[in-house]
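Customer escalation, tier 2.

The customer says the design service returned an amino acid string that "doesn't look like it belongs to this structure." They asked us to rerun it and document both sides in this ticket. The original structure tokens are below, unchanged.
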């Protein structure tokens, strides 16, 4: 059975695919992709026709009860966004996700980014040339706006992604080193 176009059919399409034996993640991805394509193809009630793209996309923290690294929450982000993994967010807050989110918000508030680099606040006018991308995320992750990613890369969004990839690798190494040096549980 072909999937139906448009936002209003996402739930129906997921349900139909699951009934046909497809895994939930695959069903969600296909349904979101079909809805996104309906506008691009000019057919049916498009996914983006009645909404401003900035209102449909997510930036900032992902607060959810879904555990990190499960990627089960379907959302849309602007193309070029960067999703910081939940372990980095929590690790920056020394095990406290909310504290890590606050640290990240301060890092990208327009004052400085990773490694003390200078970045500018995201400018809302730049989003008109972007499109929403369906992604699956998990609780505890943090979506960084593409304007900030570009600024981190000195105007090059690909370089900004590389800077953030290195930031993630560096903080994972620090976290592993710190955790491996902690004493074991207290004994009675």
């Amino acid at each position: 059975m072909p999937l139906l176009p448009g936002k209003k059919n996402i739930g129906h399409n997921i349900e139909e695919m699951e009934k046909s034996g497809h895994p939930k993640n695959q069903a969600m991805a296909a349904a979101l992709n079909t809805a996104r394509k309906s506008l691009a193809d000019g057919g049916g009630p498009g996914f983006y026709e009645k909404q401003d793209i900035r209102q449909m996309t997510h930036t900032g923290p992902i607060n959810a009860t879904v555990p990190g690294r499960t990627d089960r929450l379907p959302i849309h982000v602007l193309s070029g966004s960067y999703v910081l993994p939940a372990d980095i967010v929590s690790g920056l807050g020394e095990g406290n996700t909310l504290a890590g989110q606050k640290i990240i918000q301060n890092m990208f508030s327009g004052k400085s980014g990773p490694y003390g680099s200078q970045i500018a606040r995201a400018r809302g006018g730049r989003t008109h040339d972007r499109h929403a991308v369906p992604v699956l995320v998990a609780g505890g992750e943090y979506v960084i706006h593409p304007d900030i990613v570009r600024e981190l890369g000195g105007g090059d969004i690909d370089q900004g992604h590389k800077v953030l990839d290195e930031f993630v690798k560096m903080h994972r190494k620090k976290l592993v080193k710190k955790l491996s040096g902690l004493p074991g549980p207290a004994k009675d």
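Tier 2 assessment: The sequence is consistent with the input. Strands lie at 60-61, 73-78, 82-84, 132-137, 142-144. The radius of gyration is 19 Å. Sent an explanation to the customer and offered a walkthrough call.
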